[in-house]
Amino acid sequence: METISKIVGKTSNYKSKNEMKLKRKTLKYGGKFTKRKYSTSREYVKALQKKAERLWKELGKLLHGNECEVKKNFPELRITHTKIIQGEHCISRRNKYFFLDINNHSSACSSCNQAKSYGNKSVHRAIDEIVQKRNSEWFKNAVWLDQSGEPNTKWGKVWWLEEKVEDLEEMIKEANEQNNPSCG
Ligand SMILES: [Zn+2]
Predict the structure, then answer these.
(1) Which of 166, 162, 152, 157 is nearest to 93 (CA)?
(2) Contact yes or no for 29/143 (Cβ under 8 A)
(3) How many of the other CB atoms lie within 10 Å of CB of 172?
(4) How far does residue 55's CA lie from ligand 1's centre (Å)?
(5) Which of 11, 74, 123, 139 has the smallest number of Cβ neighbours within 10 A?
(6) Which residues crowd ion ligand 1, with CB under 5 Å?
(7) CA separation, residue 13 to residues 43, 67, 136, 156 (Å)
């Protein structure tokens, strides 16, 4: 009984924003996230990870465009592209070293994204090539580190995630300023 209520209690934490609000407590975990208060550091870490991923996608769109890069660079590929553009991780999402690294981003449509996750080699190669072309040194090192299988122990650390959020926000600001110089 206790276990069940524990599990139910856990899932209900993330059921909806309203429930999250109800769970808010007075504990505060510094940084720029002060508007929201999370009852546990685990919740805060999760929220930071989500926020950072959202920023990574936003920055990716600003830098790499809002159209499918596979379609643009490899028109010969036989694939029906869609208009839904997503942030594609070149090095797998499972690898948390590069999860928030903008070098690891490319803009790909939902078709390409799906094809890659289902093991379509041509799409996989196309995305590798797009990322490699942008920064070959980064790509070489990232592939090497990915193959070593070393886990990123900082992925669950508040200080590291806060730093990433800050970096990404800064880069978004810069990218926006470059896109619209008059606004600066
Ligand atoms: Zn596509």
Answers:
(1) 152
(2) no
(3) 17
(4) 22
(5) 11
(6) 68, 70-71, 81, 109, 112
(7) 9, 36, 42, 19
Residue 12, pLDDT score: 40
Answer for the pair 62, 177: CB distance below 8 angstroms, yes or no: no
Q: How many residues does the chain have?
A: 184
Task: State the amino acid at position 5 in one-letter form.
Answer: S
3-state secondary structure of 17: helix
Closest CA to 33 of 163, 170, 155, 153: 163
pLDDT value at 146 more than 60: yes
Helix ranges restricted to H, the chain? 2-13, 17-23, 41-64, 69-73, 110-117, 121-134, 136-148, 158-179
CA of 108 relative to ligand 1 center, distance in Å: 5
Structure-token match 């093991």, residue found = 119
Asked if the model's pLDDT at residue 26 lies above 70, the reply is no
Region 109-130 average pLDDT: 97
Task: Report the pLDDT value the prediction gives residue 11, as an integer from 0 to 100.
Answer: 40
